[in-house]
């Protein structure tokens, strides 16, 4: 099966919803709670909060483009 890349606008990441393609520890649905930018205002990373556990993780925003790991929205 071929997965397509998630189309993402880095400027509109805040408060977007994501579903993990391979959930772990009952953490399937996530919200982007923060976007971290460089000195020029370009997004570099995001903070994702798991809806179930409220655990936060920080990752490069480009990782959300990997359709094998993430689905946009709550699926």
Describe this structure in words.
The chain has 75 residues and is mainly β. The protein has a single domain, classed as Thrombin, subunit H. Helices cover 0% and strands 47% of the residues. Strand 3 and strand 4 form a beta hairpin. The mean pLDDT is 90.
Q: What would the keywords be for this entry?
A:
single chain; 75 residues; mainly beta; Thrombin, subunit H; five-stranded antiparallel beta sheet; 0% helix
Oligomer: single chain
What share of residues is helical? under 10%
Uncertain parts: none
Q: What top-tier CATH class fits best? A: Mainly Beta
Query: What integer value in Å does the Rg equal?
Result: 12 Å
* CATH architectural label: Beta Barrel
Give the arrangement of secondary structure elements.
Layout lengths: L16 E8 L2 E11 L5 E8 L5 E5 L9 E3 L3
Antiparallel strand pairs: 1-2, 1-5, 2-3, 3-4
Offer a concise description of the structure.
This protein has 75 residues and is mainly beta.
């Amino acid at each position: 099966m071929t997965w397509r890349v998630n189309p993402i606008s880095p400027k509109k990441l805040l408060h977007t919803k994501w579903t993990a393609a391979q959930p772990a520890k009952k953490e399937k649905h996530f919200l982007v709670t923060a976007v971290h930018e460089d000195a020029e205002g370009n997004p570099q990373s995001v903070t994702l909060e798991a809806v179930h556990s409220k655990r936060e993780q920080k990752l490069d925003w480009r990782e959300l483009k990997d359709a094998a790991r993430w689905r946009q929205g709550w699926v």
